[in-house]
Amino acid sequence: MLPAVHSVAMSSGEFFVDHPILRHFVATTETILKEQLEVTDRLWHLRRPYAELLNDQTWLPDEFRQPNPNSAMGGGIASWLLYRSEAKDLSLFSLVVPVGSATPVHNHLAWGLVGLYQGEQEEEEFDVPEDQHIIIQSPAKFRSNSVPGGF
Ligand SMILES: [Fe+2]
Fold first, then answer.
1. Is the pTM of this model over 0.85?
2. Ligand 1 centroid to 23 CA: how many Å?
3. DSSP letters of 40-105?
């Protein structure tokens, strides 16, 4: 069953989860994006607010922490949109990966931060030449185990 979606329209976008902590994070993010034009600077400035968001277990409702048995990705992997800017150039979503499931090898094709809010995960990253698509057989750049709050 899909979570109840309550979209709250704002000038900057839509909140599918309406919580002051999330609104504060999005406002902080928008300020950083206006002030910092280089991606590396944006990511550096976003680290602290993102860590604070990941370490606060109060703002994400249970329905956005649930797997989706009808997921197009299979394995019950769910992707729940939490926020989307009006220009659709900024989004935040929760990805729920049930125990025993794994995402396929993929490329985000965008810059951003990916962190762990709940549970544990094992992750592999691969080097892919800029002019090529994902090469699944390429050796893992590194393998890591993440814990909540990590990114
Ligand atoms: Fe990913």
1. no
2. 24
3. HHHHHHHHHHHHHHHT-TTSS-GGGGS--TT-TTSTT-EEEEEEEETTSS-EEEEEE--TT--PPS
**Confidence class for position 141, pLDDT limits 50, 70, 90:** low
- Give residue 5 CA to ligand 1 midpoint distance, Å: 23
Could you tell me the distance, in angstroms and rounded to a whole number, from the CA of residue 106 to the centre of ligand 1?
A: 6
The average pLDDT across 35-62 equals 96
Q: CA 145 to CA 16: how far, in whole Å?
A: 29
Distance 95 CA to ligand 1 centre (A): 9
Angle at 108 between CA 76 and CA 143, to 5 degrees: 80
**Residue 100 CA to ligand 1 centre (angstroms):** 16
Q: What is the mean pLDDT of residues 54-82?
A: 95
**Mean of pLDDT values over 85-108:** 92
- Which of 85, 109, 111 has its CA nearest to residue 30? 85
Residue 124 CA to ligand 1 centre (angstroms): 10
Give the pLDDT confidence of 71-88 residue by residue, as tens digits. Answer: 988 999 999 999 999 999
Tokens 């995960």 found at: 121
